[in-house]
Amino acid sequence: MIEKFHGIGEVRAAKMHSLGINAGMDLKGRSLTELTHHFGKAGNYYYRIARAEDDRPVEANRVRKSIGAENSFAHNLSDVGQMLQELEQIAQIVEQRLEKHETRGRTLTLKVKFSDYQQLTRGKTMLAPISGLDTIFELAKALFESIDLENRSISFM
Q: Which residue ranges in the chain fall short of pLDDT 70?
């Protein structure tokens, strides 16, 4: 839907629809000359965004809201012991990242993707900030143990 493009509101979308521009593919199929004819200077912008061209600087000055770690496995894991070893390594990475950024969080979330691409997410929010590898791993392990594996293997955690 063309309305999902940044800078294309209700009125502009209606005009585009009247010109047969209903999706990004339609917009990309139009020439720069045609778009500037119908939309003036904005036509140049539409021409470029349809081709994923945007030279505006990225402003990455937002506050970090989460710290995480994940791993895709070269081979699906089917052994629970091996899964827990991988989980402990991921917990170590999270703990190191928390230390590096000098921060703590109160919510721990575990995401598991099975080899059949089904994905489950489990989380727990604590009253106090979570810190220390032992605490992170024990919470992650409890979340992991709440998942019914049903003899399935894991491809991503």
A: none
Domain range 2-49, CATH architecture: Orthogonal Bundle (1.10)
> Which pLDDT does position 62 carry in this prediction?
75
Strands (E) across 70-133 are located at 72-77, 105-114, 119-130
Half-sphere exposure at residue 32, Cβ-oriented, CA atoms within 13 angstroms: 6
Question: In the chain, which segments carry CATH 1.10.150.20?
Answer: 2-49
The secondary structure element, H or E, covering residue 154 is strand 154-156
pTM of the complete model: 0.61
63 backbone φψ class: left, alpha, beta (φ>0; ψ -120 to 50): beta
**CB contact burial 67-78 (16+ within 10 A = b; e otherwise):** beeeeebeeebe
Nearest one of 156, 157, 96, 155 to 131, comparing CA atoms: 96
Structural tokens at position 95: 């703990």
